[in-house]
Design goal:
By secondary structure, this protein is an alpha/beta fold. Helix content is 28%, strand content 26%. The strands form three sheets. The protein has a five-stranded parallel β-sheet with strand order 2-1-3-6-7, with helices on both faces. It is globular.
Length: 152
Amino acid sequence: MQSLSHIKHALVLEDQYLVADDLEDLLRRSGCDSVFCSGDPSTALNTIFDGLIDLAILDVNLDYECCHKVALTLAAGQVPFIYVTGQHRCTRPELPEAPWVNKPYREEDVLAAILKVCPSGDLMPEESTLANSSSAVRLTGNHVRSQALQGR
């Protein structure tokens, strides 16, 4: 199994509990430190605005709502994300580009998509510009800023 130990904080936006639980388990078994699951786009946006997200996995259709705002927010903040959904890509051309994994999925396909957007050693674009500190994109309101984190 591919290691995701370089991913510290992941978000899973999925309205089906068993699928969310399965994705969380996959991320944790692969080495991700913490995973936040939500089936609600507003809650997911608050999580993004309040904390640090290194990666997101998005379902497209969530109880008659789309992940569009969440995908746009992640794309604006240059936070890597993938779609894991039962929708076909051609039905949602308005969504930002990201790898698309169809349900039912194989774990290998999800991991391959994650490693496409978040390869080991290349977590966030700002990392290469900071000498001895780690960084992440922190989203606050509508403003995106890069912030070096002490002790992370």
